[in-house]
Amino acid sequence: MGVGESEVYDAIEKLQNAEERAERAARQYRERWVEDEAARIASEPGTSIGNRIICRVFTDREPDDIKLLAQRLASTTPCIVLFGGGVTNLQLIFARHESLTVDLGGLMTGATRLIGERGGGRSSLAVGGASDLQAAAKALEWASDEVVRSGHGTL
Q: Is domain 37-149 given the CATH code 1.10.760.10 in the classification?
């Protein structure tokens, strides 16, 4: 029993269309999560007052999602965002509102050096590695303490 060439092309086209629909649905779900989570965090007491430090570890999201959330918060709220997390690839992600002056690239370098990893970035957005959740928590605590010590933020 043979399959005609046109049937193979039709099957490939159907698979490609299904993949595009699945990717679109995943993107919409991700965007909705970022919006909902950013609104929830921003509505927490004290988040929108002054130079608030928002520090979290996410164990159920990949770094790309966490980075989007950090950027969304930092773009809408005068805050410094210190996030860590990932399911398969653990990372630290720091972001800040444009009105603030703390150098997150330097902060990330110090935080990752403390835990034996590497990281860096721009003054407004920085990314680094973490070997495990304990290391991520240690780096985030150090970074948060540094921001408070420098007078750039409050917990």
A: no
Neighbours of 105 (CB within 10 A): 18
Quickly state the pLDDT bin for 49 (edges 50, 70, 90): very low
DSSP code for 87: S
Kindly indicate the confidence band of residue 48, based on its pLDDT and cuts at 50, 70 and 90: very low
Please state the pTM of the whole predicted model.
0.83
> Diameter of the chain by CA atoms?
76
Task: Round to whole Å and give the CA distance between 92 and 78.
Answer: 20
Please tell me the distance from the alpha carbon of residue 140 to that of residue 83, in angstroms, as a whole number: 7
Domain ranges, ordered by start, for the chain: 37-149
Long-range contacts, stretch 26-35, CB < 8 angstroms, 24+ apart: 30/65, 30/68, 33/61, 33/65, 34/65, 34/68, 34/69, 34/72, 35/72
Are 34 and 81 a contacting pair, CB within 8 Å? no
